[in-house]
UniProtKB/TrEMBL annotation:
It holds the Pfam family HATPase_c. It is found in: Cell membrane. GO terms for cellular component: plasma membrane. This is histidine kinase. Its EC number is 2.7.13.3. The keyword Metal-binding does not apply. InterPro entries: HATPase_C_sf, HATPase_dom, His_kinase_dom, PAS, PAS-like_dom_sf, PAS_fold, sCache_3, Sensor-like_sf. Its main location: membrane. SMART domains: HATPase_c, PAS. The keyword Ribonucleoprotein does not apply. PROSITE patterns: HIS_KIN.
Length: 555
């Protein structure tokens, strides 16, 4: 906050805390409502009191006109201050509390009046409506000042109009009633204001506890910092409400899960679909640092419940770390293979040296040819049947590793794969994971062997990997494809249990399938079907000759 704004805030005396601001605002609102309600009540009250005074004057006039003796005295006497009409009118005035009761004849000459000097004179207001037979209510000015009046015709016993009766209620008494009602009204308004003040105080105290007595500017700054932090951190954050709906998804979570902002407000199962990732985020799988796969990403998820029944889940991308770990495992395997190869090479050199020292030159040449030819034959057999360079190179390398581990890796005669793969990298990942698992299972068994067969059916590729290991029990042939499931010890760099999950995920992404079964000679057999794994063949002479050559070279 700048010094100028701070000085301005102090000069105006505005409170900074939320509690004080909310209390002041609510008190101002309550006071404004009380004043408005009082004004709205007083505005029609004056008119209501005027109407009541005029109706009262009219009622007195009607009661007076209904007295038969007054009409008779009017027609039989003269307008004098001590006449019978004056006497009766004064009696009614005193009894009713009216300001005046004036009785006049048809010419508008007064027969009665509060001021006796006015008797015998014409009335000061127009009596024509009353003399015409109509009743009148009005607020008007007369000889006695402003008053609420009621005028009615005066009829004799035969029903003929012989005059009129005019009754006035002093207007000052109406105003006095209005002023008299204001204190009571203000008392009610003050009571309502007091109740509103107490309610405002209680609400403000509750707001104070919930906001921890922060200022509005502090809350606004915290919200801005929260948004910047959530969308700036390199860790996915997913917030769920008590109903399992997504209520927050930061930028990193959108990237890791492959979702957009349109899923906010939707149920988690609907947004992500069925799978382990949904189960982990929904809390159906318990634990910390849970491993899951989303697309080609390996994610580590943690879930923390909140007080309102929801939860906040964090996601970390472990894809690169897992890839580094796999490369480390491969490097360690190659190092072990190189060490074994070094010992084997030393043994072969010692054998060759012995043959040369014994001057067995022909046997030495034959021994060298056998050693060099064995590796060359294996590489040639694989490259003739597998025309994709990435997959062929993978299998050649796996054959070397298998040989060092005492496992025979073979490619059957029916194997044939042209160089027309849509996703070579995906198939390399599938084959690499399946062969690694097969080597681990077959190593140390009698007549250890791994067989990799690849064949095509139109644009589909069918991959089969068999081993001579212990096999997979029937009840676990679906469980093994679940992320995190493994029978091996976890490596130093992280967790296991994602290889077969990736295999199935990659196969399903291409519309295919991956399943486990039992090999004919025992052990495990994994079959992967990729329906659209090959592109359409280009019928060029060069490619056609290559395919024919590959077919002829297949033994």
């Amino acid at each position: 906050m700048s010094p100028t704004s701070r000085v301005r805030r102090l000069r105006l005396g505005l409170p900074r805390r939320v509690f004080s601001q909310v209390l002041v605002m609510q008190l101002a609102i309550a006071a404004g409502v009380a004043v408005l309600a009082t004004g709205l009540f007083l505005a029609p009250l004056s008119d209501q009191l005027d109407d009541q005074a005029m109706r009262r004057a009219l009622a007195i006039a009607q009661t007076t006109a209904a007295h038969p003796k007054i009409a008779e005295d009017l027609t039989s006497s003269r307008p004098t201050g001590d006449g019978p009409v004056q006497a009766e009118a004064e009696r009614i005035r005193r009894a009713s509390g009216a300001e005046y009761v004036v009785i006049m004849n048809k010419e508008g000459i007064r027969w009665s009046h509060t001021d006796r000097t006015q008797i015998g004179r014409p009335v000061s207001t127009d009596p024509s409506d009353a003399l015409a037979g109509r009743e009148v209510m009005e607020i008007d000015d007369g000889t006695l000042g402003r008053s609420a009046r009621g005028k009615v015709p005066l009829r004799d016993s035969g029903g003929h109009i012989v005059g009129a009766v005019s009754v006035g209620i002093e207007y000052e008494s109406v105003r006095a009633r209005l002023i008299h009602s204001i204190p009571g009204l203000l008392a009610y308004a003050g009571g309502a204001l007091a109740v509103g003040a107490i309610a405002a105080y209680l609400i403000s105290r509750r707001v104070q506890r919930q906001t921890r007595d922060l200022a509005f500017s502090d809350i606004s700054a915290l919200l801005a910092e929260r948004e910047a932090m959530l969308h700036g951190i390199r860790e996915g954050v997913v917030a769920l409400d008590s109903g399992g709906r997504i209520r927050l998804l930061n930028d990193e979570a959108q990237r890791l899960l492959g979702l957009g902002t349109e899923v906010v407000g939707r149920p988690l199962d609907e947004a992500l679909g069925a799978g382990r990732t949904t189960d982990v985020l929904a809390g159906r799988v318990s634990g910390t640092d849970l491993l899951t796969v989303r697309g080609q990403r390996v994610l580590i998820a943690n879930r923390m419940p909140t007080d309102d029944g929801g939860a906040v889940a964090t996601l970390r991308d472990r894809t690169e770390l897992e890839q580094l770990g796999r490369e480390l495992d491969s490097t360690r395997g190659l190092i072990d293979a190189l060490r074994a190869q070094d010992h084997e090479h030393a043994n072969r050199m010692h054998t060759l040296l012995g043959l040369l020292e014994l001057e067995m030159y022909e046997e030495a040449a034959e021994f060298v040819g056998e050693v060099a030819g064995a590796h060359r034959v294996t590489a040639e057999q694989i490259t003739e049947k597998i025309r994709d360079p990435l997959l062929a190179a993978l299998l050649v390398g796996k054959a070397t590793v298998a040989a060092e581990r005492g496992v025979a890796l073979s490619v059957p005669r029916e194997t044939a794969l042209p160089d027309r793969l849509v996703d070579p990298g995906g198939l390399v990942t599938i084959v690499g994971n399946l062969v690694d698992n097969a080597l681990d299972a077959a190593a140390g068994t009698r007549h250890a062997r791994v067989e990799v067969a690849v064949r095509t059916e139109g644009r589909a590729v069918v991959l089969r990997v068999r081993d001579t290991g212990p096999g997979v029990p029937a009840e676990q042939r679906e469980t093994i494809f679940t992320e995190g499931w493994t029978t091996k010890e976890p490596p130093a760099h992280g967790k296991r249990g994602i290889g077969l999950a990736l295999v199935r995920r990659l196969a399903e992404r291409q519309g295919g399938s991956a399943r486990a079964g039992e090999a004919p000679e025992g052990g495990a057999e994994f079959t992967v079907v990729l329906p659209e794994a090959l592109t359409e063949p280009a019928f060029s002479p060069t490619e056609g000759s290559t395919l024919i050559k590959g077919t002829e070279a297949t033994p």
